[in-house]
Amino acid sequence: SALLRRLVGRLGCLGAALLVDDPSVGRLRVQAACFLVTGCLFVLCGFSFGQLSSGWLVTFYLASSFFGQLGPNATTFLIPAEIFPTEMRTLCHGICAASGKVGALVAAVLFNLLKRDVDLFLMCGYASFLACFITIWTIPETAGMDLLETDRKWRMTLE
Question: Within 13 Å and on the Cβ side, how many CA atoms surround 82?
């Protein structure tokens, strides 16, 4: 039901609020781990689609919703707001947000072309694995980072 889905999503947001500022966990680990878990859940659904009961499919869907809210949904707003220097923060955050919208549009078009639910699960899983790799490879950890230090480094780079 929609109420259960919203409740699970809110629990993921609460978990994010508790974890992202913990220096032993941080934003980067939360985002990467949740992309990885979500990818595993989708791939599991894709490869087991014919054998899973509807109850298990719903359970895996709710788990993917929880981990999606816990990680990527929370961190994709936090990280861009912290990694760019003050002079460029709003512009760069806007570019990041626009990139996310373009990605959602591309996904919506591609999803519409898929003929089987299995393909949708697999595509979402593989996209999550790719996002995990990109997160680890390109994004700096921002938990506990001093935003004034970011500005200082930026000014040094410009000079």
Answer: 18
pLDDT at 66 exceeding the cut of 90: yes
Tell me the two tokens of residue 91.
């512009």
Q: How far apart are the C-alpha atoms of 159 and 156, rounded to whole Å?
A: 5
pTM confidence score: 0.88
Q: Tokens 């978990």 correspond to what residue? A: 15
How many other β-carbons are positioned within 10 Å of the β-carbon of residue 68? 20
Residue 141: pLDDT band with limits 50, 70, 90: confident
CA distances to 24, 104, 142, 143, 151 from 27, in Å: 10, 22, 7, 6, 20
Question: In this structure, what are the phi and psi dihedrals at residue 27, rounded to the nearest 5 degrees?
Answer: -70, -45
Which residues contact residue 20 at a Cβ distance below 8 angstroms, ignoring those fewer than 6 apart? 26, 27, 30, 74, 75, 78, 143
